[in-house]
């Protein structure tokens, strides 16, 4: 049986199986089934409230599954079948799997009381067990990569939104994740810096084999970076195809309506 980190594993890196998510009486996701292969970059598009961000939060275990299962490289993330029953995975196993997943949020989520360097090195040192020297060296490489090498000693409040998001990307990459979740990473940024941040992510996509699950309203970015684009509406996948097909010849009327509105507004 392949190990969880085996690049030759035959399992999808992410698999949603009969997933449901309810918030009170509201059903956000219903009978959701899809998978993401190793190294694949999949972008979720669709109107606000269609369940896209909830999908990322479920993979990051920031939300509780209402029903169904999520597997990371064949391993159950939150629930598993034991003796014919749906049972929770131990917190120890869940934490172990979660170290392989990084997420970049809309609102940066940096620790305001820590410097940029501390924000980036905290988890590699205390979660992955890296030495301070090793974590610091890697952090400096990443700050160079995302274009803010001179901000190591600054605090988040001293940075612009675009700089904070670059640091947040570096922080996620510092954990050497197999999976990178991107949740509307430009939505809180001033328009003039959106392109710069998206270019950083394009570089990450081109120069790493990290699997990406992306939620964005930046359609040109989705078209450029994705191997596959999935259109969501009402908590369900209404269409899934390669970017060229989705953006030039979508088969679903709801996809056509959505893209027409979004591209017209942009």
Low-confidence stretches: 1-5
- Sheet bearing the most strands, described? 6 strands, mixed
**Quick one: overall form?**
globular
Q: Which strand order does the major sheet show?
A: 8-9-10-3-11-12
Approximately how much helix is present in the residues?
Answer: 25-40%
Which band does the percent of strand residues land in? 25-35%
**Number of helical stretches of at least 4 residues:** 9
Q: How many beta-strand runs?
A: 12
Characterise this structure.
This protein has 266 residues and is α/β, with parallel strands linked by helices. It is built from nine helices and twelve strands. The strands form three sheets. It has a six-stranded mixed sheet with strand order 8-9-10-3-11-12, sandwiched between helices. A four-stranded antiparallel sheet has the order 2-1-4-5, with helices on one face. Strand 1 (14-23) and strand 2 form a beta hairpin. Helix 5 runs parallel beside helix 6.
What's the arrangement of secondary structure elements?
Layout (H helix, E strand, L loop, with lengths): L13 E10 L2 E11 L4 E5 L6 H8 L7 E6 L2 E2 L2 E4 L2 E4 L2 H8 L2 E4 L11 H11 L5 H14 L15 H13 L5 E5 L7 H17 L3 E5 L3 H7 L2 E6 L2 E6 L1 H6 L4 H13 L1
Parallel strand pairs: 3-10, 3-11, 8-9, 9-10
Antiparallel strand pairs: 1-2, 1-4, 4-5, 6-7, 11-12
């Amino acid at each position: 049986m392949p190990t969880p980190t085996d690049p030759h594993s035959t399992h999808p890196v992410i698999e949603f199986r009969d997933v449901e998510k309810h918030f009170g009486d509201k059903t956000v996701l219903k009978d959701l089934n899809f998978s993401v292969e190793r190294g694949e970059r999949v972008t979720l598009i669709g109107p606000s409230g269609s369940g896209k961000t909830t999908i990322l939060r479920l993979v990051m275990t920031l939300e509780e599954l209402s029903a169904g299962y999520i597997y990371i490289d064949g391993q159950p993330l939150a629930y598993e079948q034991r003796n014919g029953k749906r049972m929770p995975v131990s917190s120890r196993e869940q934490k172990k799997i979660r170290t392989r997943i990084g997420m970049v949020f809309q609102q940066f989520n940096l620790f305001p009381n820590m410097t940029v360097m501390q924000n980036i090195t905290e988890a590699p040192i205390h979660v992955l067990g890296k030495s301070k020297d090793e974590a610091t060296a890697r952090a400096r490489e990443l700050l160079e990569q995302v274009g803010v090498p001179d901000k190591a000693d600054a605090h988040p409040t001293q940075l612009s939104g675009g700089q904070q998001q670059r640091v947040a990307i570096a922080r996620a990459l510092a954990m050497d994740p197999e999976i990178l979740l991107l949740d509307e990473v430009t939505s809180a940024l001033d328009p003039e810096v959106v392109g710069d941040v998206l270019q950083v992510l394009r570089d990450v996509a081109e120069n790493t084999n990290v699997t990406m699950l992306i939620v964005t309203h930046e359609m040109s970015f989705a078209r450029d970076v994705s191997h596959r684009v999935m259109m969501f509406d009402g908590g369900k996948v209404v269409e899934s195809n390669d970017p060229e097909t989705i953006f030039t010849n979508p088969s679903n009327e709801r996809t056509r309506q959505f893209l027409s509105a979004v591209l017209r507004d942009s």
